[in-house]
Automatic annotation (TrEMBL):
InterPro entries xref list: N-DRC_Component
Source species, domain of life: Eukaryota
Protein name as it appears in the record: RCG55366, isoform CRA_a
Organism: Rattus norvegicus (Rat)
Amino acid sequence: MSNLMYNNMWHQTQEALNSLLDKESQKMTEPQKNKVLVFQMLATFYIKYVQIFRNMENVYDQIVHPQKRMLIRKILDGVMGRILELKNEMVELEMTEFHYFDDILQDMKLSPQQLDVPIPRYFLKERLEVIKGREKTLARILDECGLNLPDVKYAVKSIALEEAVKMIQIAERARQGRLRAMFMKQIFLQECRAREMKLLGHKLSDTTLAALQIQKVWRGFYQCKKTVKEREEEMVFLGMKPPPLFNEVSDAIVQSEQVSNLRDELQLKHEQKYQEALVSIKEDLRLLEGADIKEHLQDQIRQWFIECRLGRRSRCRIG
């Protein structure tokens, strides 16, 4: 996807969040005494917040603009906090951590998979160095304790030349025996066909019967293949068997992963440039306008002292 696509997704998600906040503020002001209605209201808000969270997390992971990422991160943290609050309210309402949203999902035309709360990808990306450091520390501790399994080396057993020749001869004789058995089987089948031809010669001479025999065999073969194909399609449809190209990675997925990796690199570069720009702009501002700002502040301080002195003198005269 392009940057324009993620910007549009961000705008749509922001509009959905604003409308949801308006609805939530209106619903919360109306008192509800029915427990079922309260749960449906909380569950509806929970599902909508989960959808917003999924879209927002996807936008935050793929967008490359550092200022936009900072803003989206704040909104994303707020949405996650609101999801936890709604979950806590539903648990306190029903006294259970397991809830059923079947009717609500059906009304909203959503699948149960869309209700899953994924772990944000930036949790892993931001703590990647820490995780690698822990893995190195754990590997070093295992090495020091001697708990790492050493590489197992299998010894090759050497045999005598006569024994090796004997094994090769046995394998070759077995191969020749299999070929001879296959050849004798073919001869036997040919003799059986010849005897059948002699017994049924007058019947096979009829071309109509021969055509019917061929059609019967072909239709049986075709129907067998069709039945096997339909059975496989049914198993795939029922989810009891993976599709034919399940283990193969498509070109679109490979390209998507490449684009995602490229976006990660751009995010790091832009973030580094942004941090460097903050320092450089601050220094430039100090050099260009530092003297004017200092003089302006000094004038304000002098004016404050003058006003304080005048105020004290006026109070003393009155006293």
